[in-house]
Automatic annotation (TrEMBL):
<feature type="transmembrane region" description="Helical">
    <location>
        <begin position="116"/>
        <end position="138"/>
    </location>
</feature>
<keyword id="KW-0472">Membrane</keyword>
<dbReference type="Pfam" id="PF04235">
    <property type="entry name" value="DUF418"/>
</dbReference>
<feature type="domain" description="DUF418">
    <location>
        <begin position="215"/>
        <end position="378"/>
    </location>
</feature>
<feature type="transmembrane region" description="Helical">
    <location>
        <begin position="336"/>
        <end position="359"/>
    </location>
</feature>
<dbReference type="InterPro" id="IPR007349">
    <property type="entry name" value="DUF418"/>
</dbReference>
<feature type="transmembrane region" description="Helical">
    <location>
        <begin position="263"/>
        <end position="290"/>
    </location>
</feature>
<dbReference type="InterPro" id="IPR052529">
    <property type="entry name" value="Bact_Transport_Assoc"/>
</dbReference>
<feature type="transmembrane region" description="Helical">
    <location>
        <begin position="193"/>
        <end position="215"/>
    </location>
</feature>
<protein>
    <submittedName>
        <fullName>DUF418 domain-containing protein</fullName>
    </submittedName>
</protein>
<keyword id="KW-0812">Transmembrane</keyword>
<keyword id="KW-1133">Transmembrane helix</keyword>
<feature type="transmembrane region" description="Helical">
    <location>
        <begin position="145"/>
        <end position="165"/>
    </location>
</feature>
<feature type="transmembrane region" description="Helical">
    <location>
        <begin position="235"/>
        <end position="257"/>
    </location>
</feature>
<feature type="transmembrane region" description="Helical">
    <location>
        <begin position="311"/>
        <end position="330"/>
    </location>
</feature>
Length: 385
């Protein structure tokens, strides 16, 4: 069974992935800050000035919004993968086996990422979802997708409801960042990932992934010009709900609002649930951009190039962050201002955009994409633009 050439991919999902990696970089950078206390969603305590404004903006627009967007695009990608395989003549069992192989490959890559670099990996969670939910992702009815996604979202909301109450004076929420050597860090990081992140991430991302399957079936991202009206409504309502639901937690992190316990729990639920809406809104906005602008324009083309290499771009972020921030490397995360971490995240993302554009010009895939396809299909794919 042959892979599909990159040139045949719809540009809207890749544009969304490329832009979402900026959100991922910004959202992840602050988790490497140490020795400033642990507040809302691991943002530093007692923020003031520019840092307070940034925390409010990130919790409103970025934090808890980028991962649902990627999960939505993951579900979309699985549905497209299954559709292409079936169109090429694969039977139902072969399609399920292909999806599970892709899931196993993602699980392997994500596990290595978590052990070697960062406990907050989400690639393995996608792999786990593909392996465990392959029948639902490939041939589940709309009713089954909605019901399962709603149940997963409800569990997510309950898990994240207390986040506004977090207030700890410990140096870091992740002991692996404070480890004195890479070996100790790897052991700590494996435990943080396996027992504190993998299953929670899988449950938290399931609802958006299942929504992505419905989006693929609707064809909105494949032909955005044809679905402009629906995309406009989705973008406006989704982003609007994301802002409305994210702002309360942003105000808590910025120190502007100190809610009662019941209000804090509600703020946590709103932030989690509205992140799904924001993810859908951002995906719709990316599709609208493609419908209006040439996908090979200078800016859009650069984002599409990174989106086609999104796994490599994501892993590259962790490589740079780990080189800079933990105690067992340069240790720059100790006492780091939030604005500096944010700038570092944006700078790393910009570097990955430049690298993706260069790879696109030379017709090369990202190294992580080559590995993923080799693990999935058992062969090295040909280079393609």
């Amino acid at each position: 069974m042959r892979d599909v050439p990159v040139a045949g991919r719809a540009p809207a999902p890749d544009l969304a992935r490329g832009a979402a990696l900026l959100l991922i970089a910004v959202a992840n950078a602050h988790t490497f800050i140490t020795h400033r206390g642990i507040g809302v969603r691991t943002y530093p305590l007692d923020l003031t000035g520019v840092d307070a404004v940034l925390a409010a903006a990130q919790l409103t627009l970025v934090d808890g919004r980028a991962y649902p967007l990627f999960a939505l695009l993951f579900g979309y990608g699985v549905a497209r993968l299954a559709r292409r395989a079936a169109a090429a003549g694969a039977g139902p069992d072969a399609v399920l086996a292909l999806v599970r192989r892709r899931g196993g490959a993602l699980l392997a890559v994500g596990t290595a990422h978590a052990v070697l670099l960062w406990h907050g990996d989400f690639v393995a969670a996608y792999g786990l979802l593909a392996v465990a939910l392959a029948p639902l992702l490939v041939r589940g009815s709309a009713a089954a997708l909605v019901a399962t996604g709603t149940a997963a979202t409800t569990v997510l909301a309950l898990l994240y409801s207390p986040v506004a109450l977090t207030r700890e004076t410990t140096a870091s929420a992740s002991p692996s960042l404070l480890a004195p050597d890479p070996w100790s860090a790897a052991v700590d990081r494996f435990g943080e990932w396996l027992f504190g992140n993998l299953l929670v991430s899988a449950v938290g991302l399931a609802g958006a992934a299942l929504a992505g399957v419905l989006l693929a079936r609707a064809g909105w991202l494949d032909d955005p010009a044809r679905h402009r009206r629906a995309l406009r409504w989705t973008a406006a309502l989704g982003v609007g709900a994301g802002v409305a639901g994210g702002l309360p937690l942003g105000l808590v992190a910025a120190g502007v609002w100190t809610p009662s316990v019941p209000a804090a729990l509600v703020a946590g639920v709103l932030h989690a649930v509205s992140g799904y809406a924001a993810g859908a809104g951002y995906a719709a906005f990316a599709a609208l951009v493609v419908a209006r602008a040439a996908p090979d324009g200078r800016v859009t083309g650069a984002l599409v190039a990174l989106g086609r290499r999104s796994l490599s771009g994501y892993l590259a972020q962790s490589v740079v962050f780990v080189a800079l921030f933990p105690a067992w490397t340069l240790g720059l995360g100790a006492g780091l201002p939030l604005w500096a971490a944010t700038a570092a995240g944006a700078g790393v993302w910009a570097a990955t955009v430049a690298a993706a554009v260069l790879a696109q010009r030379h017709g090369r895939r990202g190294p992580a994409e080559v590995l993923l396809r080799r693990l999935t299909y058992g062969r090295a794919p040909a280079a393609t633009g």
